[in-house]
Amino acid sequence: MIESVNPDLHDALHTLGLRVTEPRLAVFEAVQSHPHADTETILDATRAALPSVSHQAVYDGLRTLAEAGLVRRIQPAGSLARYEVRVGDNHHHLVCQVCGRVEDIDCVVGEAPCLTPNDDHGFVVQQAEVTFWGTCADCAPDADRAADAGRTATDDRTTSAD
């Protein structure tokens, strides 16, 4: 039995008319323990707590929890879907272009939507989603070396052409 899951999750599942099952609790715990993890990572973490859980039960659990608004599914461009338990606060994400690490970025104004389009085309805007792309501190030295190598190769070609 999954013991460490917040008791409010039980209430939330009941309130939404969803059954409280061991796979759902284990999936939620895995997402909670591994923010921004992809499905494979969630599967591995769920199986660590509940070894007999099937792939399908994990996928179904993720889908159900996301549809219920208990977890958030994000998918930065060119990336696998990722999951987090931070929902309902309209935060954004910062993604490392080298290793794929994802970090939360709070909205500057703090309420949804924290960005206002210059023309809403008659829509009632409820949420804004922004993905910032960059290089994390762990990957920055590698990225700097690669950029330096690229500049050196360009400099060599320019020098030899003169």
Textual characterization of the structure:
The protein has a domain at 1-87: Orthogonal Bundle (Arc Repressor Mutant, subunit A), CATH 1.10.10. The protein is built from 5 helices and 6 strands. It has helices at 7-15, 22-33, 39-49, 55-67, 140-161, and strands at 37-38, 72-74, 82-84, 92-96, 102-105, 131-134. Strands 1-3-2 form a 3-stranded antiparallel β-sheet. Helix 2 (22-33) packs across helix 3, helix 2 packs across helix 4 (55-67) and helix 3 packs across helix 4. The longest helix has 22 residues, at 140-161. It starts with 6 loop residues before the first helix and ends with a helix.
How would the blueprint of this fold be written?
Elements: H1 7-15, H2 22-33, E1 37-38, H3 39-49, H4 55-67, E2 72-74, E3 82-84, E4 92-96, E5 102-105, E6 131-134, H5 140-161
Parallel strand pairs: 4-6
Antiparallel strand pairs: 1-3, 2-3, 4-5
Helix pairs in contact: 2-3, 2-4, 3-4
